[in-house]
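In line with agreed milestones, the collection of sequences with tokenised folds has grown. A representative record is reproduced below.
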Amino acid sequence: MASFPDTVNENDLGQAKFIGELLAPTAPFDQKSGREAWSVAFSPNGSYFAWSQGHRIVRLIPWTKCLKSFSIDHGDEETGALNPWNLSRHNSDRSQTITLDGDPREHTLDCGDIVWSLAFGSSVPEKESRCVNIEWHHFKFGQNHLLLATGLNNGRIKIWDVYTGKLLLNLMDHSDVVRDLTFAPDGSLMLVSASRDKTLRIWDLKDDGNMVKVLRGHQNWVYCSAFSPDSSILCSVGSGKSVFLWNMDKYTLIQKLEGHHNDVVSCEFSPDGALLATASYDTRVIVWDHHNATILLELGHLFPPPSPIFAGGANDRWVRSVSFSPDGRHIASITDDRLIRFWSIEEKAPQAIASLSNGLCCSFSTDGKVLAAGTRDGSVHFWESPRSIASLQHVCRMALRRIMTTQQVESLAIPTPLQDYLTYKMF
């Protein structure tokens, strides 16, 4: 079996440009376990990058400092081109902290247990807590607050102030590993945690971390969750073949999407909220129109496509992570065949590939120019994302789909080809 269909020559695929890495400290032989970089994250405003480098440690690094290393220290000053850079193992040691006056500070956070998940959250003061009966809160989150949530092996969630590195809250209610965390994008500081205890829990950080609701329905571990861009829908996936969609106004299950043949481990909405990408151990990434529960595109990682029985087992092509680019036109996936693939939503073959051993997670930078990927040895690798100028049609489509569902678009009195384009049915 192959990683690409017969119609695709691997040598003809573009090679993503490697631009650097962050290396974790060398671990003693008896500490080889627990060093995985299970999660990487960029802050919403693009100011910080965070990753779990193993052994309880999370590193917070100003992203502008990294970019200066790309374009000024080692790059072409006229073009600002991204060039390879490296943060040595010595500089990744937990004793190192950069504290230049006037600059964002680098922090090393000791979370007390293995860190499985990370999420940045920023506050919009106009978004009030849903707990309207409480007039006094210990924390007053203003416009400039940037928080980092860390999910731990012992079921706890710790909330940190990114700018000071100070621990603010310690949330305790899960009974098993907190596998994923995600903040609502609307600035409300509503946090959703997904756990191996089979539940999703919703926390209101503007109400001092009060737990608002427990969502039950998964029959086994919950691996990942993701908010739609307008914060109205939550997607959750786990140790099972179903994709769960939740109404976040009523905290009720909307529906389950069926189509995968193995555990679903990663999910993310497109920036306009029209598409949902899910990654599974069945060797596929599926792109859904979640509004009408249909599959628009299947991105295969094993050819010929395996039977459902083979896909449901140990097939050597487990897809570990999927991420949507902010441009809405590209997707990245990490698979056990030691490759990262960059896809265009308009094609069924990868646009570019890159080699990566033992990859676990990936995330695009806020501007979509860089992809970060975490590995089992606690390090993070960076690649320059494929670049192209978006067509005016695509920009208009994204603007429209941010405010209209598929059903609303289909009700418009417009030509069928235009309707198909707006609903992404041209794949």
Remarks:
- Residues 180 and 224 are 5 Å apart (CA to CA).
- DSSP finds five helices and 30 strands in the chain.
- Confidence is low (pLDDT under 50) at residues 71-101.
